[in-house]
Specification:
18-stranded mixed sheet; 5 helices; DAP_epimerase_AS; 20% helix; diaminopimelate epimerase activity; alpha+beta; amino-acid biosynthesis; DAP_epimerase_DapF; Diaminopimelate Epimerase, Chain A, domain 1; 18 strands; 2 domains; lysine biosynthesis; binds ligand LBFN2T5F
């Protein structure tokens, strides 16, 4: 094992890590309130521990840390499984809120700090509701040309960037083929974007079907909270759905989004699962 990894393993070998899942979007979480694990080490841990088959496997890794403001109970650093740091993660937010409540660290409702801003969380057993940061940079009716085809799409930032494309039959949506092309499309440079495919249900303004190609996972995930929120918000702005929408995710679980347009607020609610806690073995980071 190289010296850097050896030093990192010595730092974390006696620490408990936690694994939680929010509608199939799963995360490894460390309590890093002493900030022993640096950001650079968080990036390494995400890339090593999120690997399926060779390690724990997850869509992202989260370090919980002290807040920089008294209006927050804690802060976090969020890393995608490719090691890239993201400003926000809706399902990750639901998982950390469930964890800190279960561990008795904080009693919800509370706020916590992310790079996108303060996130409000309410925990009721396995069900967690979070308020995202206000949606920004809304762009409707974009024509996105790729070397494969052109697409009518919409864009909004719900803490992280999201493109939304309406698709007739979600089962047949080329999520990874087209997702990849749009995720890196020049109009979204340099940060890139997540890409959501959304199917409307005839005559039902309370229900959508969604699949998401996720930036930083560089694949389709089973659910994406900020993606569901972006898709519901854009559908609402286009007059296609009501203020409360249930979204059927790839995992088969339902995420519910509430749009408080007057406050420019989006609430995301769904179930969470607390699936594991334990210590890391050295081979998990080799
Ligand atoms: N799955 C997350 C999104 C996490 C961040 C995303 N991968 C990005 O880098 O933009 C969610 O539930 O919002």
């Amino acid at each position: 094992m190289d010296e850097k990894l050896d030093r990192l393993f010595k730092k974390i070998k006696d620490q408990t890590f936690y694994k939680l899942s929010a509608s199939g979007n799963d995360f490894i979480i460390f309590l890093n309130f002493d900030e022993k694990i640096t950001s650079e080490e968080g990036k390494i841990l995400a890339k090593k521990l999120c690997r399926p088959k060779f390690s724990i496997s997850a869509d992202g890794l989260i370090l919980l840390e002290k807040p920089s403001t008294s209006s927050a109970s804690f802060s976090w650093k969020f890393f995608n499984s490719d090691g890239s740091e993201a400003e926000m993660c809706g399902n990750g937010a639901r998982c950390v809120a469930r964890l800190v409540e279960e561990l008795g660290l904080f009693k919800s409702p509370f706020y916590f700090e992310t790079k996108a801003g303060l996130i409000y969380a309410e925990v009721k057993g396995e069900r967690v509701k979070v308020a995202l940061t206000s949606p920004k940079d809304l762009k409707l009716n974009l024509v996105i040309r790729t070397d494969y085809d052109w697409f009518m799409a919409h864009f909004v930032n719900t803490g992280v960037p999201h493109v939304v494309i309406f698709w007739d039959d979600i089962e047949s949506a080329p999520v990874e083929k087209i997702g990849l092309k749009i995720r890196y499309h020049e109009i979204f440079k340099p940060a890139g974007t997540n890409v959501n495919f959304v199917e409307l249900v005839e005559g039902d303004k309370k229900y959508l079907k969604i699949r998401t190609y996720e930036r930083g996972v560089e694949a389709e995930t089973l659910a994406c909270g900020t993606g569901a929120s972006a898709s519901a918000y854009i559908s609402y702005k286009l007059g296609l759905v009501d203020k409360k929408v249930d979204l059927l995710t790839k995992s088969g679980e339902i995420l519910t989004v509430y749009i408080e347009d007057e406050e420019n607020k989006i609430y995301l609610e769904g179930d969470t699962r607390f699936v594991f806690e334990g210590k890391i073995k050295k081979e998990a980071i080799l």
